[in-house]
Amino acid sequence: MRRDVFQAIADPTRRAIITLLAVSAMTPNAIAEHFETSRQAISKHIKILNECSLLEQKQSGREIYYHFNPEKMKEVDVWMEQFRKMWESRFDQLDEILKNRKN
Amino acid sequence: MRRDVFQAIADPTRRAIITLLAVSAMTPNAIAEHFETSRQAISKHIKILNECSLLEQKQSGREIYYHFNPEKMKEVDVWMEQFRKMWESRFDQLDEILKNRKN
DNA sequence: AATTTGCGAAACCAATTAGTTGCGCATATA
DNA sequence: TATATGCGCAACTAATTGGTTTCGCAAATT
């Protein structure tokens, strides 16, 4: 199924899963231990992340290790590019100064 | 209402609205002309973007000009920070080379 | 003064989402 | 061989989403 990366990272639980896997690969059970929800719910999140290539899996016996694939996340970074010049602009910095002076 | 920036940018129409407003401020009607959907549907998207401070409004008679506020978008950039070192790593570049050789 | 225009809000609807429980299957372990 | 474990899948559910149409109101235009 065709999936959108932006839609995938919209959910806070999925973002937390990504942050976990960015540190080290884990099995679904190990991931689920970090959350309140059921293993199956985590499994569904993994499926969604997998479908938009944010993850890669490596089977090891009956266990599946899910790795984070940083490549796809670049899509988000590419879209963010249009705002970078705004963040860096002198006008933006001036706005900040004026905002702080009000408080 | 408390709104999540990640959830706000999950919708492709809302991302397109942001990209429009990043260039110049516009009224809801002007924005709606760029899309197939109704003005009211666009109005709902604007509301969501507004609720998480991605927009600012300036009333002018009966018209409302919506401006893009780049400040809030930094939240996304902050979260993306954790992947930046992965993109820059030599291992990642090596992966790319190996992937290309396979094809 | 009457009409048109720009807008947000409300009511409604179909589709999607994020969760649940129950299941089956393959792989380990006793 | 019998049992326990790790996993994905299917069915169901409540809540949310993105769209529609209808409406009311204030501001502009005639």
Summarize the structure.
Two copies of one chain form a homodimer. Chain A is mainly alpha-helical. Helices cover 64% and strands 12% of the residues of chain A.
Report on this model:
2 copies of one chain form a homodimer. The first copy, chain A, is mainly alpha-helical and 103 residues long. Chain A has a single domain, classed as Arc Repressor Mutant, subunit A (Orthogonal Bundle), CATH 1.10.10. In chain A, 64% of the residues lie in helices and 12% in strands. Chain A contains 6 helices and 2 strands, in the order H-H-H-H-E-E-H-H. In chain A, strands 1-2 form a two-stranded antiparallel ribbon. In chain A, a hairpin with a 2-residue loop joins strand 1 (55-60) and strand 2. In chain A, helix 2 (12-23) crosses helix 4. Chain A is elongated and about 55 Å long. The A-B interface holds A 4, 6-7, 9-10, 12, 15, 19, 22, 70-71, 73-74, 76-77, 79-80, 82-83, 86-87, 92 and B 4, 6-7, 9-10, 12, 15, 19, 22, 70-71, 73-74, 76-77, 79-80, 82-83, 86-87, 92, 96. Chain A binds a DNA duplex (30 and 30 nucleotides) through helix 4.
Descriptive tags:
elongated; Arc Repressor Mutant, subunit A; homodimer; mainly alpha; two-stranded antiparallel sheet; DNA-binding
